[in-house]
Each structure stands twice: as C-alpha cells, then as structure tokens.
Amino acid sequence: MDFTRVELGNLSSSNFPIAVFCTASIIILVAVHFFYCNFSSRGKLVNKFGGPAYVPVIGSFIALTNLAETLLDWKEQINFLAGENPTLADAFHRGARIAFMPGVIPKYQSSLIWSLSGYAKEWEEIKIVMKQSISKSFIQKKMKEWKNNANNGNLPKKIKYANILYTKWTDEEEIFYQLISIIGASVDSTESVLCMALLHLAKHPVIQETAYEEAKSVIGTDINVFLSFDDIRRLTYVEMVLKETMRIIPPIAALARNIGQDLDLGDGYTIPKDTSVFINLNMMHHNPKYFPNPDQFIPERFLPENVGKRHPYAYIPFSHGPRNCIGKKYAMMEMKLALAKILFKYEVTTSMRNIENLEYESSPFTFAKDDKWKNQRKILSPGLSASMHPEFLTAFHTHLPNLMEVLEEKCKIGGEFNPDNLFGKFAMGVAFETMFDWDVPLNFFQHDLALQYDMFVNGTYAAFQPAIQPKFQIPLMWRFFGYGAGFQKLVNFMEIYFPKEFLKGKMDEWKSYEKNAALPKRMKYANLLYTKWTKEELVTCQLYTILTGAVDSTDSVLCVALIQLAKFKEVQTNAYLEARRVIGLDYDNTLSIADINKLKYIEMVIKESMRRISPTPVLTRKVGEDLNLG
Ligand code: HEM
C-alpha cells in the first residue's frame, strides 16, 4: 500500500466535519454498550449500559463513519457503528494489519516472498471487497459531480478534501489508492488513542471528573448540541488527556527515515548521509529527562508552561517535518469531540488493576533482565556449543529426506515453488531431537503436524505484537484484538508437545543420569534444560523462548537465500559446485563437521542473504551508562 501525500483541505474553514460528528455522536452513544470498561450512565440512565464489553470497535467505527462522510463525500452514509457493511469494516481492519507486515517481518519486503505467502492473496481479497464498496463507477460519479461543480463555478465550500481528491486526479485507480491510504492511516490510530484514553480515565477517576466537568461546561445540557470550533478549542483539558495518552502509548510506535544528507547533531556528532534511522517514539515518550515518572498518567504535562520547558521534539506522536501526519488536526478535532461527548454521557470504570506498568507480564517468555538473564544464559549457552554438533548432524540427516520429498513433490506438481515457512518445519523437527531429547523423529511436513506448526507460527505472531504496537503491552487490549486467542494456539502447541508430565519425566530421567554419574555426553542442551531448573514451568519458559527464537529466523534466511540464488544464476552455480565438491557423488553421504567447515562459499551466500534481508528488523537496547562513541 502506497501512502502518497495529498494536500488536505483547510478543514478549519468549514463546519461540516462537526455537523457529521454531531450526527455520528448519537450513533456512538448507542453503540457504547460494546465497551469493555463498565459504563454507568450519568443522569437517569443508571446502569443501562453496565457490564463488560468491547471498546476497540468504538474508535475505529467513529473514525470510519466520520471519515467516509467528511472527507470522501460518501453520501451513502454507511453507519459502521451500527454494524452496516461489516465486510468493508473488516476489510479495513485486516488491510491495516497486513499492510504493515513488511515493516515487521523484513522477508515480506521481498515482493516474491510476499506474493508466495498467503498475505498477497489476502491483500487481493481485501482489495476486491474495498473495490466493491468504493467502486470505479462510484469514483467516476464523484469525479463527474465535482468537476461539474468546479466548471459551473458552484463548488461547495464544504468537503475541501473531496473537492481536491475528485478534481485533481484523472485516474480512478489513483483516487482509489488515495482513499484507502487515508482510511488506512486514520482508522487504527484514532481508535487506539480513544480507546486508551478511556481506559486511563477509567483508572483515574479524578482526572476523569476534571475532563467531564470541562466537557459539561462546553456542551451545556444537551448532548446533541452542535459544537463550534471555538467550543472545541475550549476543550483544553480533554486535549491534554489525549496528548498524555499518545505519550504513554503512541499509536505509531516508531518512525523510520533514510538520512538524505549529512545531519549535524551538534556537539561534534554527525549522522552521515544515507544512514537509516529508526526513531522509537515509544521510548522517546518515556524518557524521564523530559517526562519525570514516565509511566504515570499526568495530563498536566501538556500545560503550555510545561510544554515550553521541553525540547520541541521530545514528543512527536504525529511525527514531524514534511512527511508528518497529514491528518493531525483532523484527528485531534475528532478525538476531542468524541471524548468530550462520551464523557458527558458516561462515567467509565474498570476493574483492571495495573495499567501503568506496561511490562508485558503475562508473557511466558524468558524476557528476564539483568542478573537473572545473565544467569540463564550462562547456564544454557554451553548446550549450543560445538559439542552438540555430532547429534545435530544425525538429526539433520534423519530429517533431510522429509524436506527433499516436499521440494521434489512441489517441483513435480510444477506449481510455483513456495519456500516460505518450509524450512521452519524442517528446523523444528531437528530442534526437537537435538535440543529436547525427543525420542521419535517428528516430521512437521506431515498434514497433522503441519497444522500444529501453523498453530505455532500464528501464536508466535500474536506473542510479538506488544513489541510492534505498544497498546498491546496491556494484556487486556491484546486479548480484545484477538491476539489472546492467537497466542492460545502457541500455548496449545506447547501443551501437545511438552505437557507437564512429559517435562517431569524428562527432568527425573536427566537428574537420575546426573546422580548415577552416567550423564550421556550427547544432548548437552537437553541435559542443562532438564537438570538446572527445578520447576516444570521454568523449563517451559525456556522452551518457548528457544523455539520462537530458532524456527522463524532460520526459515526466513534459507527462504531469502534460495530466492537470491534463483535470481543470481552464477552465484547458484558457484554454490552448487562447492556443494558437489564437499558432498561428493553420493547425495546420501553424511557430512562431518570438517565437511561443513569447507562450505565457505555457501556460508557467504547465507551471510549475504542475512545482510540483504535481515530476519530481525531492529534491535533495541537501553544504554545503562554513558557510552563514549569516541
Ligand atoms: C491519533 C491519530 C493519528 C496519529 C497518532 C497519526 C500519526 C501518524 C504518523 C506518526 C505518521 C507517519 C509520519 C512519518 O512517517 O513521519 C502518519 C502519517 C499519515 N497520517 Fe496520520 N495519524 C493519526 C490520524 C490520522 C488521520 C485521522 C488521518 C486522515 C484524516 C491521517 C492520515 C495520515 C496520512 C495520509 C499519512 C501519510 C502522510 C505522508 O506520507 O505524507 N492520520 N500519521
């Protein structure tokens, strides 16, 4: 999806968005029973909407409903909040999810892998749904209507954006992409902020009361009142609440830039031209130098006198510079109105105990820190040292025919060869035998096991969402967006293969070897895993970590390497000749460690594949003490 920049009309000169919003606000209030916080209505409607429900829909449906009418001149008035056209709403949500996959998993930046993976197909299906709703004939009709208006000199003052959109482009396809770009950019972001603001207000009744009092003073007595721009400007505390929400959980966690020319940072530091820079908004917004007690929700940080004391770029949820968010003002206006009207009508409460500490506590992974992490690593790393190689080779050769069978089968069929998620199944089978002391070789290419492997992949994707979108660091949010269910698949996978009794059996077995001084020399990793921890749950944590770390990464590198080799024939020939030299004439020859060390060119191919498309997009570190870069 290409986000191309369009000039956004001067919204501040029109009252139209407000008019639409005021109509939409009625719908919002009707839909509010979907809320996951408990709502108790102010005034007479006591407890009408009580009970837990589902908030994320609110923000996104407000955004969709508003956007369709205010920017796009979508007269059909689709009421997404009332569940009209759920297929289109779903298409936007799914579209937003997969459009960002290449940023999260770099292998999907390869158009070939993207097209071979299920995502390209899914994206095409989504586009079909979108094109049915935003059809060519609809766009043509709009273009004609707006061009006629322009020619007749009676261009309506309202809907400046639609005016520009439908008159400045001549190609319907271009307009279609502009439409879905703007919808894609606006819906999820607005939704995230509104939903998080309400959650924080539910947690902080005093702040909520202040925001409510302000909303009341601006709205008066009638929820349906039409607010003017001046009214909206008066919602200063509500604005601070939204800003603090975007500080604590920025809807867009990071920005990426390629530096076009040498950038002088002062103090003798220069970022050289062509450097790729990754700007972690989430971390910047939690910098205690600018935001003391960064985990606390304090809207007063955005009082003008406090803002004036900070570096102007310490807080940039909408980014900054020429490629910043084009819809910044629109978003703020929409969110202020929505929040004020919701607070005017409802009081929100929540039973969630801890939302300030955004540590991802429910994770089963060993995201241990400091000494705990150092100790765990010290214990397990010898298990992955050279001493495991012989058993690795045995397992590798046991599993190789499974991989080859699949490769040959695919070639026979003559269909497009899809290396995506192929090597992961192979790597998984090898890991089970070499690292976990698994007795029977597991062929994850077989139908039932392949389904279980898919459970593992889906679950891993869900598990890493909190690192991609900060709002998912709150377990409740993560669950509501379906990732809890996704992650459950990973848990189920682990329970199938590593139930507590199995682990207990293994731990007893390996501890008895140790006691009898009969510790086998092989399987160093299994030996450490099953003897150094006393509780099964702790072993499970290690298993989660090592499996998710080992499988997808290897899969990605081999998949990229094969695609590169297919593209660069000469490189493939060189790699082939080296393989022939080392393996000899008999393909079934078992290679030794010394043989593998001879595969120098193939090693370079793998390294170059990892350089070309790194399996892990970025690394983050918190610098513990001043780091002199010289
Ligand atoms: C809370 C709500 C929102 C936040 C936090 C937000 C944030 C952002 C950020 C950080 C960027 C990336 C800029 C960069 O790479 O430096 C962006 C781009 C963009 N946003 Fe927003 N946004 C929000 C709402 C909206 C709305 C409501 C619209 C449309 C009405 C919109 C339209 C866009 C567009 C079209 C781009 C791409 C701009 C370009 O590439 O030139 N956004 N937004």
TrEMBL record:
Q: Subcellular location, in the record's words?
A: Endoplasmic reticulum membrane; Microsome membrane
PANTHER family cross-referenced by the UniProt entry: CYTOCHROME P450 4C3-RELATED (PTHR24291:SF189), CYTOCHROME P450 FAMILY 4 (PTHR24291)
* Molecular function per GO: heme binding; iron ion binding; monooxygenase activity; oxidoreductase activity, acting on paired donors, with incorporation or reduction of molecular oxygen
Q: Which family does it belong to?
A: Belongs to the cytochrome P450 family.
Origin: domain of life: Eukaryota
Which residues are listed as membrane-spanning?
Answer: 16-37, 49-68
The cross-references to InterPro entries, in alphabetical order and at most eight, read:
Cyt_P450, Cyt_P450_CS, Cyt_P450_E_grp-I, Cyt_P450_sf, Cytochrome_P450_Monoox
Tell me which residues bind heme: 325
Q: Which keywords does this chain's UniProt record carry?
A: Endoplasmic reticulum, Heme, Iron, Membrane, Metal-binding, Microsome, Monooxygenase, Oxidoreductase, Transmembrane, Transmembrane helix
Provide the cofactor list for this protein: heme
PROSITE patterns named among the record's database cross-references = CYTOCHROME_P450 (PS00086)
Q: What is this protein called?
A: Cytochrome P450 4V2
